Structures are given as structure tokens and as C-alpha cells.
Amino acid sequence: MRVARDDYGVNPVVFLTIYLVCVPVFYYSLFRTFQSLARRLGKEAMVWSAVFLCANIAPFVYVILSGRNIPWWVYGIIAMVIGQGVLSLIMKLRKNPADDLKLNRKLDEE
Fold first, then answer.
1. Cα dist. 107→1, 23, 103, 104 in Å?
2. Which member of 23, 69, 78, 90 has the lowest number of beta carbons within 10 Å of its beta carbon?
3. Are 15 and 59 in contact (CB under 8 A)?
4. Where are the beta strands (DSSP E) in 21-71?
5. What are the residue boundaries of the structural domains of the chain, listed by start?
6. Structure pTM?
């Protein structure tokens, strides 16, 4: 922890706190995004999707903003994590929860 604080300017306790605070926001926003998509509320789904994305990348934004002398590969990993979050969000938004309900009903009828 001392090396991260002194050499890189990143406090692991602050990073972990931000990460843990974002976990409930992450899951609640994911739930609300799916709920909005199921009700076909496009604008509300976009708002909750943005909250989801922010909760996903907030700890890494802290590292980017407060870190110094961080190796280039750490920035690469952060970029991949953020890219994965964006890609995951896009995939979830394109998936229609109503289609899953129709499929489940068909399976129950059989």
C-alpha cells in the first residue's frame, strides 16, 4: 500500500472505497436499465445506462486523475476495462428483455 501511495499517488483505500460504494449503484442501475427496456422507456433506459457506466468506471477514473508515474500497461488495462464496460452496456441495451420473456413463455408451454 505504501508503494502505491508514495510512488504512484494512488491510495488503495480510496480506490477500494470508491469501488465498494459503486457496487450497489452498479447493480441497481443495471436492474433499472432492464426494467426500463422491458417497459420500452428509451430515455429512462439511457439515463440508467449512463449511471451504470459511470459506476463501472469511477474507481479507474480516480486512478487516471490522481496517479502519477504509472506504467503505460496500467493505462492499457484501464482502457480495456472501460472498453469492456462500454461494450457490455451496448450489448445489454441491444438485447430486448421482452424477447426473453416470450422465449420463457414458449418453453413453459412445451
1. 52, 33, 6, 5
2. 69
3. yes
4. none
5. 2-109
6. 0.65
